[in-house]
Amino acid sequence: MIRPGIRPCACSGRSGRGIGAGRSSGSRMPWSHWYVNEQTEQGHMDIESCYQLGALLKERGDIPGAERCFRRIVEQAPDLPDPQHSLGVVLQLQERLVEAIGHYRAAIALDPCFVKAHYNLATALWRSGLYQEAMACARKTIDLDPAHAEAYGLLGQLALLTGDLGHGWDEYEWRWETREGSTKKQDLGRPQWDGSPLAGRTLLIHMEQGRGDMIQFIRYAPLAAATGGRVVVCALRELVALLATVEGIGQVVDRQGPLPEFDVHIPVLSLPRVFGTTLETVPNRIPYLRPDPAKVGAWRQLMPANGRVRVGLVWAGQEKPDPFRSMPLSACVPLLSLPHVDIYSLQMGRGVEEIASLPAGCAIIDHTARISDFADTAALIANLDLVITIDTAVAHLAGALGKQAWTLLPFVPDWRWLLARDDSPWYPTMRLFRQRSPGDWHGVVERVREALGQRLGSPAIHNQRGIELLQAGQPGEAEQAFSAAIALAPDYAEAHSNLGATFDNQKRYREALASYRTALSLRPDFVQALFNMGNVHRELGELAEARRCYEQVRELSPGLLQADLCLAQIWKEERDFARARGCVERVLALRPDDASALHSLGEICQAEERFPEAIEAYQRALAIEPGNVKSQNMLGMVFHLIGSLEAAEECYRKALAAKPDALTVLNNLGAVYQSQGRSSESVAVLRQAVAVDPSYAEAHWNLALSLLASGEYRDGWLEYEWRFKKSNPVPERHFDQPRWDGSPLDGRTILLHCEQGFGDTLQFIRYAPLVAQRGGRVVVECQTPALKRLIAGVAGVSEVIAAGEALPRMDCHAHLLSLPLIFQTTVATIPADVPYLRADPADRAIWRGRMGSAKSLKVGLVWSGRQNLVLNRKRTCNLGTFAPLAAVPNVIFYSLQVGDGAEQAAEAPAGLHLVDLTAHIRDFADTAALIANLDLVITIDTSVAHLAGAMAKPTWVLLPHVADWRWLANREDSPWYPGTRLFRQSVPGDWQGVVRSVASALEQYRRAASPAASGPVFLNAPSPGEANAGVPVTCPKTPPGLAKRPRGLKVGLVWSGRQNKVLNRKRSCPLAAFTPLADVPNVTFYSLQVGSGVDRAAEPPPGMALLDLTGHIHDFEDTAAFVANLDLIITIDTAVAHLAGAMGKPAWVLLPYAADWRWLTTGEDSPWYPGVRLFRQPDLGAWDAVIQAVAEALNERASSGRGEYPPQPRCPGPTRFSEERAWLERSLDGYLRERTLNPSDPVAHLNVGAALGLLGRHREAIPHYRRALELSPEHVQAHLNLAFSLLALGEFAEGWRHHEWRHGMVDSQLPPWPLLQQSDLERHPGGQRLLVHSEQGYGDTIQFIRFIPHLADLGYCVTVTCQPELATLVGSVRGVSRVVPHGESLPVCDLQVLLLSLPYLFGTTLETLPDEVPYLVPRPHQVVLWHSRLCGSSEAGGGQP
């Protein structure tokens, strides 16, 4: 950095002539020439004026003119230090460094304390390559000025350049203090990290300086994360996607947007100092950046597979900070005509225009117009063989990706490239080509051309290139490279063997064998080829041939013990464990500490289910090789199998620390997250695995299970199709006839083939009626004849055959478990009409006769499932576990257990009356007939659970801690089976706790089912005949013998909103204010209060019966189901007001004096909700008047039918102004005075309007907002305040338009898809995917979700992203195809829109407002569940049930 720092010149002889006086108007001579010449002609010079002129010309960029001024002074007054220094500055600006150094030295000789001359001399020496002298001058500068930040910074860069990293990092911290530096320290309000363990804290790493700096030093993020915290990063938008691939980074954000939460922070270039980095400890494990596999594939499609070497080229960088890094493209011409080379441009921005000027025959391929960010550049580089670049961010990117990179450096390089070496400690795959004299790009390019030519003409280089391509996952290109090597040297055995490995990689096994045989014909003792051939035979299942190869390897190379281990694997696969152990023991006898042998021993023990021995073997292997990813992975699998999930997770994490993109480990970590019920984490890590390899079926399969378990059915069913490609695949059926795509069948015959287990068939045969409704004849092929009779009774099924029986004629076919995908099933659209399986009446009568006519409760019992898989056994418990059920009187249990575990029925627990009639069961139709005669079925997760649920039989399913995906998570019911109740383990393996809960519930159920019971409890959901999903639901009539409804009015009560804002608090009312309601007879109050104020429910007003069941509320669907069971809702302005209104439930909303705009300014009704009645404060804070009016109205309603109807109550007017109103009036006076004093200040007008708005005087407020906008048309808050006043007055058209100004606050956080426009609503979208963002509060979402059906009617496929607590309820809205809770990954869409923009887009007015209710509906079984809770609470007399 050059800082001339001109000091005042103490010279005499000042001329009185002004600058430019006497200049000839017709002269073309530069003014500085004329001035200097005139001064010379007159025989004297005004040195001060000439000096000031030189300084002015320099600042204006006229460097030659400035030089003439300063040189003339130096010639006439050589003893003045300032002109000597200034002349040095302008010479250095022209890169005339030798001359500049001379004048700096002259200035210092005249003034030894001239600080700026010392510093600029140091910079000139540095630019001249005289580094030691430059360091001495920088130190002298610091001696003279100990606070000279620039000198410290230069000293730091010189120390780093010369390899003294320790001192360099310390001095480099001075960069923050420089006055002209590009780096400015940010005040982030949190301490800077000092490198101490994070211990759970979040560290923000933020970008500084250039993109290359960020790419180079983000390598420290994994080290920071390893100290025990979370790492988040902010950077330029074009780097966000790329940096997200770095191990250990939890989140990357655009630095132009809001920052995430963090505890400490650090600039990225301060990380090396924190970690004490030296040349010996540079963290250079590569790659630490990874390209997106999908993008890599897309770029590969643009590159012809022609066998030519692909070289990327960058020739120009930015002018700042160093113009000497760049060269003209013309200098690269010698590289552009090399044979067998394709040059791809990686040049962006400056320099791209030079491509058009290339001479004929110099080709460069330019796809850079497709590059949108650095993730694109990384994917392009991944497809190249070599990158040749000047010192730009691309050099760092290629190095960080582990790509071969040749970096071309100027004579004076940047500090990070050090000196006198052709490699980089930062990037192991990088080679450096340096200028040998300043500006000598010709010499650099010639050396690059020579090196590239050597690379192209060597068979060994082509062979090595093939190896690199194969390791990079590009077998097609690798094949061409090995073929090129063979063409140059046909007897090159290694190339033939490697070509075989390439074929092997592509599963072209026969070609691989041919290549290996050729290699062996050239070198009969070529052990590697022989070993690889054994591997291929093993892949082909030719185990005898594989054994022969491995045995020959043992003979040729007895020390290659890997052959013994491969033999051991073969014997293990054939389950000859003794021979397998023998092979491994031979290896261990020779090498007791052979980690591979110990690993193989672990695999053998694992296959034998000798898990403790397997754990010991793997741990011994890891003690020898701690970084062995495979052993860590297998150890994790054993821990997973035995249920030690935390230990399994730890193993997988250690494996990923060593190899972040290890597919099997990522998959297994996702699986262990599944087993822990951590679905969102499972989805994230499995998506990571799929990103690494989009064809990895195991990860897709596990991703399907996690998505389905978390209710994300739309993506889940798509991923579920990978079941046919996983390692243990579901058999896929192939016919000449096409697979059905869901289109109308029009009389055609479709074959539905069942798959997987019996439970799957029983669960998904529900789709057969829907298929038949498409107009076809449905034939079902089931797994066994034992299912035929049962399935034949399903509506819409025309014929049933069993597997192996002759197939009928068909026109198309479908796998049974692909039907949810075809029908686009979501949780909200599950076809849950039960029963869809029924027992034959004749069979049912036969089984009734077998069971007798006992009056006791008849309960079916299943305790065990199939034991063929270890993980399946976790669903199973012993019959003895059910012993607590014996304590429930008047219950007879009937065994439904067949197969594994059935023998336990002979030894039932003491007191458990268990009848076993299963010997009479011939098929599933018999099981169904037995179930039909039971009152209740209690079962673990088996096919019986599905059978009973499909028959609409009350069913209780006992589930492990983390259940199968179809039971979802954290719920007691099943959307698949409305009559089913779920009992889940609270901790893994706790069947005793589950059975205790079941025993308690069974006692309640028995009492409920007893005609003599005095206080029955309604425990099970009604059958579909009583309630259907998707229609308005009321509380079902109480079945005979079950719970009675509480008498009198049931009224829900809400008194407080969130207290996070002052205006919100004005909406709230203390519970004590509701005291007058306690005097109203025949009313039971139920608290609907959650969050703020909920604690007050424990202390209701005297005499008020207030029951609190809110402990059962988990989300808004629970609240909705609760509300559905009430007669009336009384609430202040909260989300509950909107919820009740959207459900069509009578609701009374208590409003403050100046209510929110959506309630308008006057009136007792709401145009948004026909069933809502409004009670408004007559003055600010006058809740007493509101409550009195509510009490009168409630008394009228409660006593209706008695003959007395008091007059319509109204809130009495105020007798005097409230204190709050008086305060607001005073504030308004103050704002009016401020506006008078500052009439041109838009904020003054805005404040007046806001005060008037708070007083409810919206009509008066509007002119003030308009005036604020005249003064500041872009003032967002003025637009919004104007919108609120207009909307409150019902002037919707203009109000919605101003309301759109909130976009400026949220658009930067939206995905990069186009926003829906009004013109889009006039077109036919044809199924375009539209993402609707809910915004602001719960009430806003509830109020405006009413517009979604209108979007669906236009033809949009609508996805809504909303608050997680609303997700299930929003899914019930007609037209919603998918709901994505906030925080989860958003799907790719064609358009997007903010929810509260829909009234504007639809042109909504008071007359066209969509007020059809209900548009939100809870599911029937939830309503029934809450009905039972209300009944139970009324018996108990309040409190928690």
Automatic annotation (TrEMBL):
Domain of life assignment: Bacteria
SMART domains in the cross-refs: TPR (SM00028)
TPR repeat spans: 115-148, 493-526, 527-560, 595-628, 629-662, 663-696, 1242-1275
Key word Transmembrane helix present: no
Assigned keywords, A-Z: Repeat, TPR repeat
UniProt key word Repeat: yes
Single GO MF annotation: glycosyltransferase activity
Gene3D superfamilies documented for this protein: Glycogen Phosphorylase B, Tetratricopeptide repeat domain
Protein name in the entry: Tetratricopeptide repeat protein
